[in-house]
Design a protein that fits this description.
The complex is a heterodimer of chains A (334) and B (350).
Chain A: H1 2-34, H2 37-41, H3 49-58, H4 74-85, H5 98-133, H6 138-152, H7 155-176, H8 182-187, H9 202-228, H10 231-238, H11 243-271, H12 275-280, H13 286-295, H14 299-327, H15 329-332
Helix pairs in contact in A: 1-14, 5-6, 5-9, 5-11, 6-9, 7-9, 9-11, 10-11, 11-14, 13-14
Chain B: E1 29-40, E2 43-55, E3 60-64, H1 71-79, E4 87-96, E5 99-100, H2 106-115, E6 117-120, H3 124-127, H4 134-146, H5 150-163, H6 169-172, H7 182-194, E7 200-204, H8 212-229, E8 232-237, H9 240-246, E9 249-254, E10 257-263, H10 264-269, H11 274-281, E11 331-333, E12 337-339, H12 344-349
Parallel strand pairs in B: 3-8, 3-9, 6-7, 7-8
Antiparallel strand pairs in B: 1-2, 1-4, 4-5, 9-10, 10-12, 11-12
The chains are: A mainly alpha (334), B alpha/beta (350).
Chain lengths: 334, 350
Amino acid sequence: MGRYVARRLIQFIPVILGTLFLLHMLSTLTIQIVGDPVRALFGPNAPPQAIIEELQARYNLDDPCLEQTGNPCVGLFVDRIGQYASGDFGVNFRGRSVMEMFLERFPVTARLTVIALAFEIVVGITAGVLAGLKKDKLIDNLVRFTTVVLIAFPVFVFGSLALLLVGLKIGLPLRNSDWAPEWLGQMLNVGYDPDYPWLSLVLPGIVLGAFSLAAIARLTRTSLIENLRSDYVRTARAKGLGARDIVGVHTLRNSLIPVITYIGIDIGFLLGGSLVTEGIFNIPGVGQLVFLAIQANDAPVIIGVVTILTVVFLVSNLVVDILYAALDPRIRYD
Amino acid sequence: MTDILSNGHHRAIRTPLDALAFDEDAPLLEVRDLQVEFHTRDGLAHAVNGVSFVLEAGETLGILGESGCGKSVTAQAIMGILDTPPAKIAGGEVRYRGVDLLSLDESVRRHVRANRIAMIFQDALSALNPVFTVGWQLGEPARKHSGASRADARRRAVELLDMVGIPAAKERVSDYPHQFSGGMRQRVMIAMALALEPDVIIADEPTTALDVTVQAQVMDLLAGLQKELQLGLVLITHDMGVVADVADKICVMYAGGAVEQANVYDIYEKPAHPYTKALLESIPRIDQKGQDLTVIKGLPPVLTDRPPGCSFNPRCQYARGNCAHDEPPLYDVPGGRKSACHYWEEVLGS
């Protein structure tokens, strides 16, 4: 296991460098083809040359390679990696550190991720296991029907419905009443409330996790049914084990391997923030930060945040890969 | 060997087995008129149709037959691990020391498995759980049935691996199934069946997935352990050579029914059923090199659409008019044998 982790970590270096280089190439090519973002900042007005040069210097845009289309600007990339390593992901056009802006919003997105994940894992796996154990019975049909509906509905429809029906119709009277406990009203809030950093994210978290919940339930169900038919489960029965050991120990662990893979990819996506859910519930998370930066044409913020998110995604995938090996010994020895 | 047997049947922990009235004078395992049906889309399939046999301690019974004849279903019905549905045990008795296992509640019956009757499966790679170490899986019966601690279970696992001849058992106990070779893996399977010192072992094609040299080693091991521990062994196979070597008596199955039962010498010397005879004739022989192999013409019947009368009659060279509508009973043949053929005397004499 230790050797596997070490090898994975070493493999991680080229992966992250390669990904960052691709990102660098994309942004460089954009500047080379579309033109200097500093000039674009001023629109039709032509500012004095001195100001432009000063800004270009501040944003590392004064390198002559940026005028040669197709030049990979390796020197610039090396500088960038050095800055990234020291936690410097650039500044926005108003001079604020991108990292600072990110860190301000990331906890909100992280909390949202935790809620969505907890919801989709607990409910998704439970529903999947129940459906798998009672294949073709009522509970299975119920789970299959619900998951199809959840997968078929676009998140903005589901989110808006949740906002209107739950947040307004049910939540609002609760928040205004004297009898309902405060936490219940906050759990069903229409938007983010900084005074209730966890509770007010419960409803958006459920909306955000709904799609993955359906996918996890489906994966768990199929995988469990398949494994229940396997030879080693028959062996477990021949050993005279009780139903709890047969399902809980011998079947579940094998069945969860594909589910873990899915959850791993999902963590990466969720931590990147969700434009739609954060938009519907007006949550000041990472998704909103990217959205605002795109609206404001704030190139350094877009590049910086996307870079950070890439790193977050890669690291969470690395963690899942290691978890995966802990679950399945066959992975460790190839 | 005796110290390995130290946590034998008289362990301190009370199990539901203690409440059962096992009769030590009754046969070790007795199967009477076992009937297993499968409800399939094409109708009812009689996978096992009236199989009976008796097995005593220290005895090896070979159940012989081609694929799909119901041997494995018989084994799984005895173990009580058939998936019901689609399978259904439609009748018969499976008596262990006089107690009919089919009448027991599952919560009691599961303790019979592993404790008294254990099973060895065909393909050890798929029959062992890939995500747990071999030691963990070997120790599991001791932990779950006898309440052994993790450390004790591990010690027991090492003992078991030693017993089935796996070198460096202490180290290998923490390996995973995929790290063993095929033969070693089958030894692990055998060790697992022996974990709680059962009296009956049912081995379902234990050597089919192995290559020939390893087959012989594994069979030798199994036969040796059977003698040493005085086990009742039910050996299910389609390999006539394997049964000839180790079985004391043989039950030949065809299309879900037992067609002939006899001790191993008699059956190889003079078969009393046309199917057994045809099977023996189809063994390739070195002195017939270059000639066409003898085959049994035709195919076994589809179990949902069994021919009336004797199910072997469409393929039988002895078949007469009445074979197509009179189902033959198991006739008693001199020498304590049985044959389900109207014309067993003619077959025996030929």
